[in-house]
Amino acid sequence: MQTRKSSRAIVLNKQNQIFLFCYTFDFFAENDAIWITPGGALEEGESFEGALKRELFEELGIKITAQAPFVFYRTPMYKLKGGETVRSEERFYLVYCDDETFSYNGWSENEMKKMTAGKWWSVEEIKKSSEKFFSEDIVEILERLSAGEILKEPLEIR
């Protein structure tokens, strides 16, 4: 079984909305569109923090210079179309964003095909939505962060 390590960013604006991409994972057995956080896999020899900085710049044009807090993690198992199981090791970092204008100039050809939309979501919109989101815990995550809860240790999410 292979392991895929990735860094993800929980990008929040001043209104405590989270920025998510609608992404279609066509290599998973379930070919669903899902709203995900910006981020992606670590490259050879890259740290989680290095991947976070690279991915945010590639996907949104955001340059982060300060250390982003590591707030959540998860290790889901995914089944690929060929039947192989992949263990995903995902770390989520908190990034606040004042500027809501992003640049998509760094997108790969694959991202251009699979990321069909990008949107700021409020807790209320997520609660009312029938869309599929990256985590079952997304409402709790946003409520905790919106309340200003400071996490001493990263929490596991589903």
Give an overview of the whole structure.
- The chain is 22% helix and 34% strand.
- The protein starts with a strand and ends with a strand.
- The chain is globular.
- It has a single domain (2-153), classed as Alpha-Beta Complex (Nucleoside Triphosphate Pyrophosphohydrolase).
- It is α+β, with helices and mostly antiparallel strands.
- The chain has four helices and nine strands, in the order ββββαβββαβααβ.
- Strand 6 and strand 7 form a beta hairpin.
- The strands form two sheets. Strands 1, 4, 5, 6, 7 and 9 form a six-stranded mixed beta sheet that branches.
Question: What would the keywords be for this entry?
Answer:
alpha+beta; Nucleoside Triphosphate Pyrophosphohydrolase; six-stranded mixed sheet; 4 helices; 22% helix
